[in-house]
Structure formats: C-alpha cells, structure tokens
Amino acid sequence: MSKDTPAHVGRGDGPRTGANGASRPGSPVAQALRDLAPPRHGRTFWSDLDTRLADEPQLRLSPRSAIRPITQPPPVIDDRNLAGNLKGDAPARPRTSRRTIVAVAVAVLVLLLGIAALQGPDDDVTTTDSTPQTTGAATTGSDSAAPEEVAPPVTPPPGTIDPAAALTPAGVGPLVVGTRMADLQAAGVAMQVDTSTFEGTGGTCYDAKVPGALDLLLRFRAPDGQRRAEDPVEGVLTSVSIESALPTSRGTDTGLALGTPQDQVLAAYGGVLDDRPHPFLSGGHIYRADAGNGTGIAFFTDGQGVNRISVGEMDSIRFLNQCG
Description:
Oligomer: single chain
Distance between the termini: 167 Å
Largest sheet: 8 strands, antiparallel
CATH architecture of one domain: Sandwich
Strand order of the largest sheet: 7-8-9-10-14-13-12-11
Order of helices and strands: EEHHEEHHHEEHEHEEEHEEEE
Strand content: 15-25%
Structural class: alpha+beta
Shape: rod-shaped
C-alpha cells in the first residue's frame, strides 16, 4: 500500500464502489471509531474510582461449604474496597474477626479465673464473720443449722386401741363400759365373738376380743330389760380385763399392773377396798374399789401378787365369770 493510499483502503468499512464504479464514503460512526484515540488515565484515576465506589456498598456472598446449618445466615462481605483490592495499590480496610472476639472473651475469662485463684479462703470467712450474732438458740454465719423438720403426729385410725392405754373404771380407749357392740363396731372397733360362750349362756353373758388388742378380755351381757341377746351385736360391754395368761405391759391409771405385790394394792387404796376371797386360789383375794356411777376396778391376787385386773360394772367384776 502506497503512502498516498487512504488509511481505510482494504478495510471492510472503507469507501465502497457502487454499481457504476463510483466510490461512496463509509459510516460516520465507523469513521469516528477509527479516529478515537485510546483513553489515557491520570495517576489518581483508580484512587478516585475507589472513593466513589466506597459510597456505594454492595453485598456479596463469600464462597463456602455447600453444607451449613439452616440457622446460620450466609456471610456478608463489604466490597467497598473491591476496586482497590483488585488493583493492588490500596490497603484493605480492617474488619473485626469472629476469632478476635473469641480470643478476647477467652482472655477475659482466664483473667477472672486467675483473680479467683489468688483470692484466699480468709476473704469468705471475713464476710460471714461480719454477720451480727444473736443470743439464744440461734447461731450466726456458717455455724447456723437449719431447723429439723418435725414429723406431724400420726393419727391412729378409728377404733385403734393404743397398747399403752391404761385401764380405768370406765374402760380403755374406745372400749367404753356400757356401750353396745353394734355401736363399737360402727366406731371402727373390730370384734371377734366367742361363739361358745354366747351359745353356752344363751346370749346372756359372753366374751369377745379385739384383733388389734388381744391382751384384752371383753365381756358382754344382755341388753337392759332383756333376758338374752338374740344377736351378739345387741350385747352391752360390761367389763374389760387383763390377766397373767396373756402377758402385757398395760396397767391401770393408778400405776398398778400385773405382778404388782398385793401389799401395794392395799397401800394404794387404803380402807376403801372390798375384800373377797378368791374362789379358786387358796390365799388369793379379790379387791374391789368403787369408782361411782356403778363402775369400779378389781384386783385378783394369788396371795402374793396381782394376776388379773378387771374394770367395769361393779356386779360384773365381782367374780371371774359374773355378768351381773
């Protein structure tokens, strides 16, 4: 190509020849692009661009593992210095790292543990000793003890007879002399009737026991105004007794019990005792003390000590097999 040949000769966008051989000029846009010189940026171009981009933050997701907890949000990165980082001539802006936060927290925890280890046990003692003292049973500081819990008193079920309950002229516990068997059962006292004595006397005088107090001998009589009880539950409690054949620690309300010397019985009641000879024991006695209201207490002896005690109606405790 000669020196005088136009620059566009040989290019696809240069002057073209028409059908009649005449040339026609190229596109104005193509001509302008041909004449456009490459841009020449100043030394501060990239710095100015970084400043402009810093005012327009963008959100981008950083690459990470495809599997993550659904509760962990995707990380957010700040691309305000992206242009400077790509160019390599601008320093990256500092960011607070999660590792840095964790490291600071661990350092604070270690410092607190060190302070606690250096603190001596005397510091705690000083704190407790400063508590004002009180008089009486109460104590102060760490010496004070919590009051012991007192268990509530146990209430026996209805009809229960306390094994330590004493005999009185009126009976023992819920066994009140003069009460019908049916009423005692209604109050919760279980009864075991001695059918042999009930049938043998035709319901006029018979014995019974309480399963929870087998040391007691109960005697029932026919109801008032009747010669006999048609049913054992109709009977009336006439006496309660204890005897040496059924060992028991139960005694009387005056402190006398089975095995008490005969002389102590005489000393306890003086001259108010009704003395009768024992029908089966030679030298034995039956000492009765009238308590009023038709009731009393009787001590049966063998001449040396007490071997039976009966309380109840005076006529019933007069003899061993008496019902009045």
